[in-house]
Amino acid sequence: MSAPGLLSGAAPTLRGVGFRGGSYTDNPTGGPVLPLTDAPATEQRALHSLFSSSVLYPVLPFRVNYFDALTGGSSTRLDVTPAQYQSSGPGSQTGTLRAFSSMNFRLYYSDPALSATTYGQAVGYPGNIPALAAAPAISQVSAIPSPDGQSVAFRVNVAGDPSAGIQQVWITYTATTPGCSGGLNPCAGQWQPLDLVRDAADSTLWTGNLALAGTASGNVRYLVQAVNGAGVVGTATNLGAYYVPRVETVQATAPKQSTSISFSSAPSSGTYRDAATFTAVLSSNGSAVSGRPLVFKFGPQRLQAVTDASGSATVSFPLLQPPGQYPVRAAFEEAQDLLGSAAESTFTIARQATTLTLTGGSAHYSDSTGVVATLADQSAPTPRRLREQTVIFVVSQSQSSWVVPVVTDPLGRAPLGPLPLTPGAYTVAAYFSGTIPVPTSTGVVPLSLSNDRYSASSATLSNGLTVTAEPATAAYTGDTIDSVAGPIRLAATVTQEADDTPGDITNAQVLFAVKDAGGNVVSQTTTPVAADGTTSTSIPTLPAGLYRIESTVAGGFYSSPTTTSPLVVFDPSLSVKGKGVIPTAALPPNDTATFGLNVHYNGAQPAGKLKFVRGIVGDDAEGAGDDAQVAATDDPQVVAGSPCPGTAVDPNASVDFRATAFDWLVITGSIAQVQGVGTINGCGSYHFRAIASQGDPAADTFEIHVWD
Fold first, then answer.
1. Residue 204: inside a domain, yes or no?
2. Where are the alpha helices (DSSP H) in 626-706?
3. Nearest CA among 605, 604, 601 for reference residue 485
4. 153 and 183 share a domain?
5. Which residues make Cβ contacts (< 8 Å) with residue 246, sequence separation at least 6?
6. What is the structure's pLDDT at 10?
7. Is residue 638 pLDDT above 50, yes or no?
8. What sign for the dihedral angle of Cα 119, 124, 126, 128?
9. Where does a domain end: 224, 249, 274?
10. 49 secondary structure, DSSP code
């Protein structure tokens, strides 16, 4: 649609919109509908609140949108909502949906160059500007059916600013029944216009006649619109209920009867977010009046109920207004046979009580405290969790304190979260509103907070908060084989538990305890941990022997289980050599075995031979020889790692074991121990440890342990 061209050449301004008609269908999908109101799209799904309207809503489903033009654009837009909704009755969750398939409008523009002109300016009078004229005031509306019921005579009084004048008045009408069949008679499903004519004798009176063509006058519904010379439109809709043609004259022989309303139940107070129920009784001349609508108003809330056989109507208001004092009014609107009446009461809304509960009580260093405050009101019948409210935590230990404000989530929870707390015991208190004791360096300072809807509450964590050391592990990475020349490097890598916020690992220490074969501590040291989790130290040399290193995370901030690692300390100047025949517990031919052993150090690496034979005729392990110039792998049999054919080695069968590599050799006193890997019957790769002791010739011993 294009705006009209103006003689002045100025851009026209849209000032008003007149509704001229349209086609509609009630409940196009069949049956009553449930209106779904908007719900906030937040992290939690919100409830759709009940929507109720006693008239078709929106009353005028159109509106001019000047936003684009006011923000530098060139367009003025007409926003149209081609649907209306009306509840089936007071308190009903469903109702009628009126959907428009077409809507007819007349747009009224003004010429800024003319409407902004000042007229009638004189001394002492600034003049009149038509552009500033208000919408026409529609002061009186009547529609009188003709005696034969075939037409309706409309009379409308309209007043306005004389400088703008009243340019046009019309009614737009429809009917509740019958349905439209193509004629011009009032019918359901079609809004139609009827232009009124100004009365020659009274410039404020506009009249017109509408032929009903068979439609009952009581089924006609209409609204009135008027436009002035500046294009501003005034509308009268009877507060959205629309007007109905009727004879307004009251006969002297049957005057309207007076009515009275009284509250039979009107509580004087309640708490925020609870509900209050009110009952009013409508009577006339001392008798109850049934079947009439009463309107209850409580602050900004408005509810409607119909009187029962005893003249009573009851409504229940949710107490959602801020605490304070409010008038509660029950009113009956004047009807054709009864005069209106009203009654009023006073109601006070008090703050809702609240409760705070604290959960938690233990946490690891650097992790979240695990303390959660839950805030709820005490509304009936079910307490509600309170979201987006501030809870103040006060955490104390001796002279140290932390004051932390936290906003509750949609479930009313306020997590305290992580704090820089060292291991130990703490008191935890939480406060919602009220007077909060805030610890400072100069003493406790009271902080007073108030909430206009909820009362204060507080809670203290029973048994307090205990912060314990963060679980960690210590992986030993230092020396496991070293010579008596020393020193011996002890090292470890500390890893803290990956369950929450990592702490400062430099607060950790590692305790290294070196124990001999008898479990006696021969060396102990504690070392700090670097930022990358590593730690190391050195100890002087130890006598040759087998030891174990126990590593434990210490320091109070972290703790770990003890990990054990072997430590071999050898004397490279010593060697072992021997051979012999030993009995076994097996049956012949496996009842004896021979061995040959010749191992020494080449620098820091053991070298030599070890052979053990059982139950193999013609093979003698004593042939290990006395040659001192041997390498670790100079046995011509096979190298370790050759696959074994068939099934696994039978430990009770014949055995030909030969060492292929040596890990270490330790000699302490008369006992020599050697460990390495070798083959059995020419295949596999098996670990072994051989132990030989020297005493009297009859007391010499040899034992070998082999495992995979």
1. yes
2. none
3. 604
4. yes
5. 143, 144, 145, 217, 218, 336
6. 62
7. no
8. negative
9. 249
10. P
